[in-house]
Amino acid sequence: MDLFEGVQLNNIRQYQEFFQEYSFERKEIIFSPGKYPKSIFLVLKGKVRIFLSYPQGKEFTLSVLQPGDVYSGHTRAFGQALSAVKLAMIPINVFKDMLISVPGLVFGLVTVLGDALKGSIDVIESLVFEEAGVRLTSLIREWAQQSGTSTDEGILITLDFTREEISSMIGSSRQTLATLLKELSSAGLIEIKKKTLIVKDLEGVTNFFK
């Protein structure tokens, strides 16, 4: 859900001068821990990967922000552009004033944050209770339901992520990911092309590693 869905634009026009817009290219790091501790980010265009970084170059993806999502700069996570990204940066104190003077924003914020919390809980549960194969098929199912396009061949998913990024999302190595994808492909459940993935049997994919 978009944060401003259902909100009259005239009600927030007085705050426009405080919005600073920034553009980023794919792969560019947007923010790092502690860089913008007093700012709120609003994604206007593109996708932003939120991830943790550990020694020896290990990374773990927590979430992927879509247009309309908000994020606070006070966390210890990194933000990276997965595509061409445009976002607005808003000082926290201004954002607080907006919530007070425009009550409709509160509903939007609660909904957006609720979706983000659900996504975080799903990630934690999958890491604790599920094997890498199940985490991968759950991710494919989520992509298919959220952004997949039905075609004669199956559900077409445009891949915005590299193999390294997908590995980070399921908490595995790139080699493990390659093995899992090969198993799904050999079973005739998916077909992988350059930047797309075709799901030929969504239920079959979902249950393959269970």
TrEMBL record:
UniProt KW DNA-binding keyword: yes
Keyword flag Kinase: yes
TM stretches of this protein: none
Gene3D superfamilies, per the entry: Jelly Rolls, Winged helix-like DNA-binding domain superfamily/Winged helix DNA-binding domain
Every HTH crp-type domain range: 130-203
Any single Gene Ontology cellular-component annotation: cytosol
Domain Cyclic nucleotide-binding per the UniProt entry, residue ranges: 3-72
Domain of life: Bacteria
SMART domains per UniProt: HTH_CRP (SM00419)
Entries under Pfam families matching the protein: cNMP_binding (PF00027), HTH_Crp_2 (PF13545)
Entries under InterPro entries matching the protein: cNMP-bd_dom, cNMP-bd_dom_sf, Env_Response_Regulators, HTH_CRP, RmlC-like_jellyroll, WH-like_DNA-bd_sf, WH_DNA-bd_sf
Record key words, sorted: DNA-binding, Kinase, Transcription, Transcription regulation, Transferase
Record GO terms (molecular function): DNA binding; DNA-binding transcription factor activity; kinase activity
Protein name from the UniProt record: cAMP-binding domain of CRP or a regulatory subunit of cAMP-dependent protein kinases
Provenance organism: Desulfoscipio geothermicus DSM 3669
